[in-house]
Specification:
Helices cover 42% and strands 20% of the residues. A hairpin with a 5-residue loop joins strand 2 and strand 3. It is of the alpha+beta class and 218 residues long. The longest helix has 36 residues. It is built from seven helices and seven strands. The protein has a single domain, classed as Gcn5-related N-acetyltransferase (GNAT) (Aminopeptidase, 3-Layer(aba) Sandwich).
Length: 218
């Protein structure tokens, strides 16, 4: 795979839709949310995400092994602060020729699908990759993963097929002032969105506690 990354993979007309949802960069404090998110994937979704049948124990080890100081992980939260979409951008060892690549993996829960979250997460990771001097975005998946294959094709990735697997590559241009500003704005927007949802959740919890508390004695 590293030899393939060292070669040139230039997509014809790369397309990445503009991010339509706030996407927050996750840290070690989100480990429980990440584990809860992945455990909600059914057997079929786990196979598509990890390329093989994946037990709860394997997922727990995967989450425990996440290195937030090395890789980048992004998430989409719903109104209840449930992590419904997640992307893992894993930085790969630099290969001969100075090519720097990162592998993109994504999962979206059932109630978050068909809303463009996968495309938004890919766009977020592409911008972050450019700003961290990554020149090739890489995806490995099963050819039966129709959602990922569609996402890769829509992004203009160059795709190679072999024995039921697919490798997709997207050559990224260098960072510029626009990508740096875009990421900074998105980070601020996502943090503000999360804080608002957090306050709303606390307000709702307080309201329901008030409605459900026993009446005071006269």
């Amino acid at each position: 795979m590293h030899n393939k990354l060292a070669s040139k993979h230039s997509p014809g007309k790369p397309y990445l839709a503009r991010q339509a949802v706030p996407i927050r960069e996750l840290h070690a404090g989100h480990t429980k949310e990440i584990l809860r998110h992945l455990l909600q994937l059914n057997d079929g979704d786990r196979r598509l995400r990890f390329g093989t049948q994946t037990s709860d124990e394997v997922i727990a080890r995967y989450v425990a092994g996440l290195d937030f100081s090395k890789d980048a992980i992004f998430g989409i939260f719903d109104l209840n602060l449930k992590l419904i979409g997640m992307a893992h951008l894993a930085y790969l060892p630099e290969v001969r020729g100075g090519v720097r690549a990162a592998e993109f993996g994504v999962s979206v829960l059932l109630d978050g699908r068909s809303k463009g979250f996968g495309t938004a997460l890919l766009q977020r990771c592409a911008v972050h990759s450019r700003n961290t001097h990554i020149d090739t975005l890489y995806v490995h998946c099963l050819t039966s993963n129709k959602a990922m294959m569609h996402l890769a094709q829509k992004a203009g990735m160059s795709i190679e097929y072999a024995h039921g697997d697919a490798d997709a590559y997207l050559k990224l241009p260098p960072a510029n002032s626009s990508t740096i500003v875009e990421e900074a704005v998105n980070e601020q927007w996502a943090d503000m969105d999360y804080a608002l949802k957090q306050n709303l959740k606390r307000s709702n919890q307080a309201w329901w506690w008030f409605l459900g508390r026993p009446k005071l004695a006269p």
